[in-house]
Design brief:
Strand content: 15-25%
CATH class of the largest domain: Mainly Alpha
Helix content: 40-55%
Number of helices: 13
Distance between the termini: 50 Å
Strand order of the largest sheet: 4-3-5-6
Structural class: alpha/beta
Number of strands: 11
Length: about 375
């Protein structure tokens, strides 16, 4: 329990043998970062990779905690947004780490949302052939998804996250109180990834969210519970399938459609952010499943209704700007990381909490489905 809030911290363990690590979930946990680093990593120097927006809000707290613990630190401040998560941004981060003269045994701190977490983790994985790093996710989406599991990467003109590597952090600190600094849109977008865990394989959690989502938005112990439950679900999948050869692909529910929509929108956050793409993608995955007779129309409607209630977009027509033909979306889908020898793989569902991996999905079925949705 934290003295300042009276709420309990939760610790979620990611079991990966000698690379296992903890996720610390709860309010004010960010203030303990210095002592936690000292206890886990000993006498290290650190580089904090963050973006300008996050630095204004949280960098001072991290720097003070590190100073109080006697840990040397350098701040590397990047521009916010998806454009930073490309070749130029990666090289700038790597050069800044080397400029700071950190050694291989020192530590990178990824302080930010999914963009910074992916970029900093990738840089840590390749500088000096691999440095240790920790994740300090500052968005809901990053706390429940991208900060856990070791997937890092950058975007290219061919699609999202197509260049990267698996590099596990040594610690994740998910301070649920700092989520109060997010805009309502950012929080909603992150919530899509929370709902995802219920839709994948936990109908009871999805039901709990249907009844408690407003309390999650307000904060308090319900938010801690939602974040910890999501992290626990992801930790179990990562422990069973670290490199996404089987079960871990389920975590991509909604992402095949969602990533295609992000690519179509040129990663423009005015039009669409990642969690919004995932929300629409999860609805499309359920509706496509219903169209194939795999799940009931009622279950597809239930998924859509909850995401609608939260305020997330659930249709293609809610994306601002002109929509492309189905063929354009199919071109992005063809670049999806789950494609194998040109065959499409989708995460489909037999109902709420009953998702599964479906290989060899006929492209014509997907294209016809998208054409119908685009003309709706």
């Amino acid at each position: 329990m934290t003295e300042e809030t009276g709420m309990h911290l939760e610790t979620v363990r990611v079991e990966l043998g000698d690379r296992s690590y903890d996720i610390i979930v709860g309010p004010t946990s960010l203030k303990s970062i210095g002592t936690r680093i000292r206890d886990l990593f000993g006498d290290v120097r650190t580089a904090i990779i963050t973006d300008r927006n996050v630095a204004d809000l949280h960098l001072g707290t991290v720097e003070q905690a590190l100073t109080d613990a006697g840990i040397g630190h350098t701040a590397i401040i990047m521009e916010p947004g998806e454009p930073t998560k490309r070749y130029d941004g990666m090289m700038a981060a790597c050069d800044a780490i080397l400029d700071s003269k950190l050694e291989r045994g020192d530590l990178i701190i990824a302080l930010g949302g999914g963009v910074i977490g992916d970029l900093a983790g990738f840089a840590a994985g390749i500088v000096r052939r691999g440095m240790r790093f920790i994740q300090v996710p500052t968005s809901l989406l990053a706390q429940v998804d991208s900060s856990v599991g070791g997937k890092t990467g950058i975007n290219t003109r061919h699609g999202k996250n197509l260049i990267g590597l698996f590099h596990q952090p040594g610690l994740v600190i998910a301070d649920t109180a700092i989520l109060d600094t997010l805009s309502e849109r950012e929080f909603r977008a992150g919530y899509a990834e929370v709902a995802k865990y219920g839709l994948i394989n936990d109908e009871a959690f999805f039901s709990w969210l249907e009844n408690n989502w407003q309390a999650v938005f307000k904060g308090g112990q319900e938010r801690v519970h939602a974040v910890a439950t999501s992290c626990r679900a992801k930790a179990a999948v990562v422990a069973a399938d670290e490199r996404e050869s089987g079960q871990r692909a389920l975590l991509n529910l909604g992402h095949t459609f969602g990533h295609a929509l992000e690519g179509m929108a040129a990663y423009d956050p005015v039009r669409l952010v990642h969690g919004e793409g995932v929300a629409i993608g999860m609805v499309l995955a359920h509706e496509f499943s219903a169209r194939q007779g795999l799940c009931s129309p009622e279950d597809a409607a239930r998924a859509r209704h909850h995401l609608d209630a939260v305020g997330l977009p659930t249709t293609l027509q809610q994306i601002p700007g002109q929509l492309p033909p189905a063929e354009t979306l199919m071109n992005f889908i063809a670049q999806d990381k789950k494609v194998s020898r040109g065959s499409l793989t989708f995460i489909l569902t037999r109902g709420i909490g009953q998702s599964f991996v479906e290989k060899d999905v006929a492209p014509d079925l997907v294209k016809d489905f998208l054409e119908d949705k685009l003309s709706a």
